[in-house]
Amino acid sequence: MQEFKSAPEPAPVRAAPPAETEAPPVPSNGDADAISAAVEELKVSDEPAAAPSVSASSAAAAVEVIPDAPEDEGKVVETYRKLLEEDPRDHLNVVFIGHVDAGKSTLGGQILFVTDQARQLGGWGRAAVLVRAALMPAVDKRTIEKYEREAKDKNRESWYMAYIMDTNEEERVKGITVEVGRAKFETEKRRYTVLDAPGHKNYVPNMIMGAAQADVAVLVISSRKGEYETGFEKGGQTREHAQLAKTLGVVKLIVVVNKLDDSSVVLEGGQWSQERYDDIVKGLTPFLKTAGYNPKKDLTFIPISALSGQNVKNRASKEACPWYQGPTLFEALDSVEIAERPPTAPFRMPIIDKYKDMGTMIMGKSEAGLVSVGDVLQVMPNKLRVKVEAVYRDELESFAAK
Ligand code: GTP
Ligand code: MG
Question: Where is this region: Disordered (predicted)?
Fold first, then answer.
């Protein structure tokens, strides 16, 4: 049976102080400064009970273990069951990282094109963004033709696929990603959120923001003559991004060797160069090993063309790549094993960002447990107790998130 592992989801949570908080009274308007000021005095609630070990290795298995869960966890278990009923598939955040111009946005655009999905606008779940996202058309042939014309006008002919992810004018004119692009797609096995990070060194802080939310990283390498070399040099973002992703807790890395169709490396007759591919794999492996990735368990290498979509969802043609028998990118993503997270463990979520919106919206990737509307949580390190007023998963309001 295909193993489904419980995986984190971005779980923006609107938190406001609970009505029943002990004295001193906590301001109810969610004003972060006032809340912080009140924090010192607050008594801390008891430490949460240790989490029982519950296997969530598959939807079916997870339902089986539910009756064994202790009585007082009934509500959590029921919420978990409802979440599974809604969609038993895992959700994974996938960040695209790598040197500038490696083809990350092109790959993101191609994935949306082949899965017929719309790019999501904006960052986290604000109502205005939700409305606009809902109105975005799926990426169809006509949209692509429009982007082709726009890219041509800007003297960036080959950038039309990247335009699907790079939506603002500055990004399109310069041909570089600035903000982390977000998009969703799904396979039969899993649901994915793509986080398309910028490769340019000026925007490393944005890349960190993307990688911090990710379960898996796709490291995009350009095999084009000179581009692989520059990216991998000291100070190139191939090294920096791979290292940062590891530091930020991303343990699995899929390395896609891209642009094998480029005229600087392609063989006569159009076949992709196995020699170029092997050289790149051999060059990167020792470095990635030093960075902490286990080549046997944590790394997968795939030759691809993001621009023509070969080995992305569909297998590369025999003419282009007769020498590769491994998985496509979609197959590799579907088989990545992610550490299991027991649903009945106390809820834990590092806060990545926040903003005020009738309370305080906090964003992050859930690392353990479930969060439901009405829960009372404790914000560390100042031990502030807050009540959950709304939960958003991938910008859509929900009753709970895991
Ligand atoms: P930043 O966001 O600025 O880091 O760049 P990026 O990694 O998102 O690269 P982007 O997708 O913008 O692509 C850069 C250039 O590479 C564009 O001209 C693409 O058309 C080209 N490119 C991407 N994938 C391929 C490919 O598979 N083959 C060829 N020949 N060109 C590609
Ligand atoms: Mg980009």
Answer: 1-55
